[in-house]
Amino acid sequence: MRDDHTTGTAQDEVTLGRIETEVALLMRLGEATRRATGTAEHRVLDRAAYVILRHLDSAGPQNVSTLAAKLNLDGSTVTRQVSALQRDGLIARTPDPADGRGTVISPTPAGLQRMAAVQAARTRLYGDILAAWSPDDRETLAELLHRLNDALESRNRRR
Amino acid sequence: MRDDHTTGTAQDEVTLGRIETEVALLMRLGEATRRATGTAEHRVLDRAAYVILRHLDSAGPQNVSTLAAKLNLDGSTVTRQVSALQRDGLIARTPDPADGRGTVISPTPAGLQRMAAVQAARTRLYGDILAAWSPDDRETLAELLHRLNDALESRNRRR
DNA sequence: CCCAGATAGCTGTATCGTACAGGTAAATCA
DNA sequence: TGATTTACCTGTACGATACAGCTATCTGGG
């Protein structure tokens, strides 16, 4: 990459460009990995379902709109995801006692179990991928990714 | 399922779990950001088109199969992406002089210009998001993401 | 108390990215 | 040269998503 861009210390521009590149690449690779890994056996839980179950697990039962807002998804999308999850017995819908329009979505034991299995498989996968890394580097990666996500999230919220 | 995995220290398991979580989150946020950012003005170039143009830019003109292999995509997918790019004047197809079955895909000036614009916008976005970060931290993030991608890629290739 | 608006969720429809199966034409090899 | 492989395209299907429009319910000002 040449120094196309003037502003700020050139070095910083370069670094930002690298980050942009690497994030784009990671998204592509992550998708490919998920596709390759999932197709085989745990086709059981596609990406959307997994994030919904994770969120329900960590944030507790909640209704569709809340879920949609948290996940940055349209309500209709979540409605459909949730329907599929219910069909598969992974979540339950109960009428919201406090609001006749709402339904509260909660994970079923089967759903939690399924989610945990996928999570464990993914964690194992990362263990495999990062086998050669030092604990320190892993720690730093986790930390920086966390901060990156925080930054992305607060920026998304701000607009 | 505690230390199913032996090798190491519970702490390491925890770190792997965090990495798994953060990567999943990043993919979701990245999608959301792209959607939010892109819709407004540079709806000009969706994700798939962008990665294709980037690849053509960095790796030079090449035919559909090569491109598909590099991008971990099915040939038919790339065929269609390329058709759309051609329709929009962003790439050109020329018959492969060395192989009558093949077509060589190359970016047009318009395509490169468009790609550079999107790339610059994204880089600017990261500059914005990471405004509060020290150059050192940015550098480390870029470096670790690069190593993570390398690891993911070689793992994908290996199977 | 009632109605006007807001909100929760669902359904219809559309788009995008992707895969797989099957076709045709060109290349290659035994 | 004929069988096989390769490169690409087309048909079809699916998953994830958005937006628009619908119904049922809630809520706040008269």
TrEMBL record, chains A, B:
InterPro entries linked: HTH_MarR-typ, MarR/SlyA-like, WH-like_DNA-bd_sf, WH_DNA-bd_sf
Gene Ontology molecular-function annotations: DNA-binding transcription factor activity
GO biological process: response to stress
Highest taxon above the source species: Bacteria
Ranges that cross the membrane: none
Domain HTH marR-type: 22-150
PANTHER family found in the cross-reference section: MARR-FAMILY TRANSCRIPTIONAL REGULATOR (PTHR33164:SF57), TRANSCRIPTIONAL REGULATOR, MARR FAMILY (PTHR33164)
Name of the protein this chain belongs to: MarR family transcriptional regulator
